[in-house]
Amino acid sequence: FMHSGYPIMIHSTSVAELLNPKTARTQGIWGITHELGHNQQCSPWEFPPHTTECTCNLWSVYVHEEVLGVNRAKAHPDMTPEKRKSRAEVYAKGGRNLDTWSVWTALETYMQ
């Protein structure tokens, strides 16, 4: 699909999604912004390996809401208020173990 870094690499079959502003503003482009978010990660924010696939999603949330005007809940199905609340409750009731701190649970922590 795509590789972040320098240079950014993307399969030619995914380029249409990247270059379609209408789709980006109506459906979102989470996968693309997730990969580009890896270029925005800062080591002081990280708790490797637990957050490597999490903090890049801060960029996804920001780009969708501030640049594209797409609410986070519409940008990715795991970002609905119901799923976010449920995930936090399950994690808290499960003992708050770092081993079960998934990508989405970690993202919720950063978004607080």
From TrEMBL:
Task: Choose one Gene Ontology CC annotation of this protein and give it.
Answer: plasma membrane
Query: Which GO molecular function entries does the Swiss-Prot or TrEMBL record give?
Result: transmembrane transporter binding
Domain Peptidase M60 intervals: 1-112
Q: Which GO terms describe its biological process?
A: positive regulation of protein targeting to membrane
Entry-linked InterPro entries: Pep_M60_3 (IPR042279), Peptidase_M60_dom (IPR031161), TCAF (IPR051244)
Q: What is this protein called?
A: TRPM8 channel-associated factor
What species is this protein from?
Clarias magur
